[in-house]
Design a protein that fits this description.
By secondary structure, the chain is mainly α. It has a domain at about 20-80. The protein has helices at about 10, 20-85. The longest helix has about 70 residues, at about 20-85. The radius of gyration is 45 Å and the shape is rod-shaped.
């Protein structure tokens, strides 16, 4: 009669298996893929930081431009008021230049 029970040759035979050699390329591909994924995530984060910095700088420039425009408008208004206003009596009198000695 023949033996119909399954044999567990991997466990019972003393020969070494070669299955780990087949897994090496898959492990290399997975490691390279993970490295590429980490690089892309780092690049994305770096690009996002640059974008945020550029937006912040642009906002600062807009704010500064707005302040300068307001300041220029105020100075122009003050200048127009100063030109249009008659001289007030509270201003000090103009200094008279003395004639040099010997002049009549």
């Amino acid at each position: 009669m023949t033996d119909t029970r399954p044999r567990f040759s991997r466990l019972t035979d003393s020969g070494s298996t070669k299955s780990w050699r087949a897994a090496i390329p898959a492990v290399i591909v997975v490691v390279i893929f993970m490295g590429l994924l980490a690089y892309l995530a780092s690049s994305l984060s770096s690009a996002e930081q640059k974008k945020m910095t550029a937006e912040r700088d642009a906002q600062q420039i807009r704010d500064q431009s707005s302040r300068l425009t307001k300041q220029i408008a105020m100075l122009q208004r003050d200048n127009a008021l100063a030109k249009a206003a008659p001289p007030s009596s509270s201003s000090p009198p103009a200094r008279q230049r003395r004639a040099p000695r010997g002049w009549p």
